[in-house]
Amino acid sequence: MLDSQLLKIAEDFGSPVYVYDAEKIEFQYHRLTNAFKNVKKLKLNYAVKALSNISILKLFKKLGSGIDTVSIQEVQLGLAAGFSPEQIIFTPNGVSLSEIEEAAKLGVKINIDNLSILEQFGTKHPNVPVCIRINPHVMAGGNANISVGHIDSKFGISIHQIPHILRIVENTKMHINGIHMHTGSDILDIEVFLYASEILFETAKQFKDLDFIDFGSGFKVPYKAGDIETNIEELGEKLTTRFNNFCKEYGKDLTLAFEPGKFLVSESGSFLTHVNAVKQTTSTVFAQVDSGFNHLIRPMLYGSHHDIVNISNPNGRERFYTVVGYICETDTFGNNRRINEINEGDVLCFRNAGAYCFSMASNYNSRFKPAEILWYNNEAHVIRERETMEDILKNQVQIDFSTKKKAAAAK
């Protein structure tokens, strides 16, 4: 969508506000499915944690996607959005056996990444099919916080523990219907991904009655002009050939599954803020906006980059600004950014704000969470209202401190 349209949304709905472009989401979804069009059975399961608004989930359902969930609440949200249980896979980490059992009762696909939980679940529910998450011990991802397939990761069951898995399966007679891995986000080198895939293929040979192999996701999107991204088309061509050959060797047409989140929604999102003040110090010019890391924590949490554009003054001369928020501690969105001249009242747009932005927002400093807008069919649709003080107080229980302490009972 155009910056002029974003500017109008900021004027109509106020700020801060998240805006998502449905057309970009659809483009990314079809780009990925087209890259793997020569796979007989392909299933994309959108990773709900990236952006969990129910209207976004309904959009993915309309596109034909399934969903990947990591909590029982995301499972329930998916069901509320109209997904059938078989369209949902539950891939948690570190949750209790009871939460996994609750998901299983709802009929969704179960993915387990812990030997102890696998044995307990298989012993109690041997007839419930289970997918197993493998840790391939491959370091992939753009940041240590989003690399989850290496040897020190808490995710997955180590490939060196395959004999333990096989023993549990034999003892419990449980049915393993899928093998899964997720190496991490921001994959730069597809050869690393393909190497990890070979480990998954070798593991899959150990299980004779699979329905699908899930290769996770983590495909990188560009964060700024000239930035590199995962070559989806090349990956699609190479992995399709290898997967189809494996299916012939296996003697069955398996489903190739992915669970993309960021790849599908990141570029669709724009985060709009107004500039409260421009503050000149002896060394820096600060642009102070009406938001903070309570609404967009990724830059402070792990140094993520979001392009920042002054959509109010697109033709102004460029100057250097450090863009900061209003939280009362270090709250920096970008240091020494080259941005068209900023004046108080201007609207700044943060790009790539569709994934892990609103979903990680909080009420820190007792600030309200922003509204969310979906740009669909050339029209702005409110898909989440801006919070109010009533929302802040809703679940708080106030004690009446005016009453006197009851006298101690007589002995």
TrEMBL record:
One GO term of the biological process aspect: lysine biosynthetic process via diaminopimelate
Catalytic residues (UniProt): C328
GO molecular function: diaminopimelate decarboxylase activity; pyridoxal phosphate binding
Stretches assigned to the Orn/DAP/Arg decarboxylase 2 N-terminal domain: 24-266
EC number: 4.1.1.20
Family from the record: Belongs to the Orn/Lys/Arg decarboxylase class-II family. LysA subfamily.
Functional description taken from the UniProt entry: Specifically catalyzes the decarboxylation of meso-diaminopimelate (meso-DAP) to L-lysine.
Protein name, UniProt field: Diaminopimelate decarboxylase
Organism annotation: Pseudotamlana haliotis
